[in-house]
Task: structure prediction
Amino acid sequence: MEFDIRKLAKFLPAIERPTYKPSLNKKIMWTGICLVLYFMMASHFFGELYGINPELTKRFQTLEMLLGSSFGTLMTLGIGPIVTGSILLQLLIGAKIINWDLNEKEDKEKYQVAQKLFSILFIIIESLVFALSGAIIPKSYTAFNLFLIVLQLCLGGLIVLLMDEIITKYGIGSGISLFIAAGVINQVFISVFSPCVLNQAGCVLPSADKEPVGRFWAFILAATNGYAYQAITALVPILTTILIVIIVAYAQSITVDVPLTFSNVKGFGRRWSLNLFYTSNMPVILAAALIANIELFGGLIAKPLPNDPTTSCGLLGCFTQTQSGNQPISGLVYYLASPKTNIIVDVIGGTITTQYITRIIIYTIFLVSMCVLFSVFWVSTSGMDSESIAKQIDSIGMQIPGYRKSPQIMKSVLDRYIPPLAVLGGLSIGLLAALADIVGAFGSGTGILLTVTILYGFKQQFKQENLEGAHPLIKKFVGED
Result:
């Protein structure tokens, strides 16, 4: 007899769905509460893990923005376990290893339980790996101290899982998207406007020989002192970030409109808009999380070289210790991880090499390929395929003009648009993410791209809400006032 995974649902932590439709103000309130809690958990002041050495948690800070995490705090795991579990489940269903039809209510319920089960499993696994492998350095390697660290990491992961459910059911959007956007915006603001110079003693004000973290102030300082090259290198990433934001915002507005009419009411109709980014930012989230996990795993299994303790090597490549964390310098991880440089600045400085160009090409091909693959999988597993959309259109009494009212016929028409859009959308968002990484957009290229698409998605969701009684700023945000 086949085991029904839904029986496990009663043993898993869960947030009950509301028995009423929450108002927009209540949705904003719950989203805001979760956002404040996220920042508190990610703060070393409120959420620092007990029993660790906080000075040694900066080695993986390049992963923090992609995972919405903050190493050394309760938000160390971030959305990593949720996204990793989703990736694995997507692959199992896409490869038909798990034969579930997510158009069926029963299989969809199984998928939801399995997704939560996988997330909890990865929370436990990643907590153990982080504590035992050296990603989080404890003050002492006693069994009790390691147990406390694992317990805190698991607790933080479970809180993130529940906050994601709260936002999904009572708030606006999803916790995964919100936490990514919050982390990236925080990092971008620091990268552009922080007047401090970070060193071992903390944050101190800049001086003639100490460049500020914020590129805006670095540009002002260099320009006033007549340092042309330094001023250009400070200004270029600001301009490239603005350019990427404009391109992504424009691409978000590209749609394919399918005309619809009411089958029982003549003369009335609407258009069903299919965006170029049909699967939104999910493909690049999943692809970026996959790359982040590969980079993290490569760093964890790498061992320091006897003659050079700042360099560590392992099966996936070699890493070197820098102020910004573990940086890959060779091997598979070097070519799959984001270059984290600015090709425009490198061209101006004449530092372009054949290895550098090869890395950019391989990284771009891998990222774009993963985005296309996850976009196709996401369409088939999230109810966005032609058959599901055709049933949805038919259920509201509409049809495509010029065709007989039939879900099968509507499916055949939608097949002309949705599968190509899934591929083209994944391809487009992958190329934009790669471009943003290569030209050095702040917040990591992928991070700033995700933030723009997430904010655009929030705007579209706000438009679908009843704005009566909403704050004037909300109405201005969606263009209603």
Q: What stands out?
A: The chain has two domains: 1-172, 235-451. The first strand starts at residue 197 and ends at 199. The chain has a mean pLDDT of 81. The chain is about 55% helix and 10% strand.
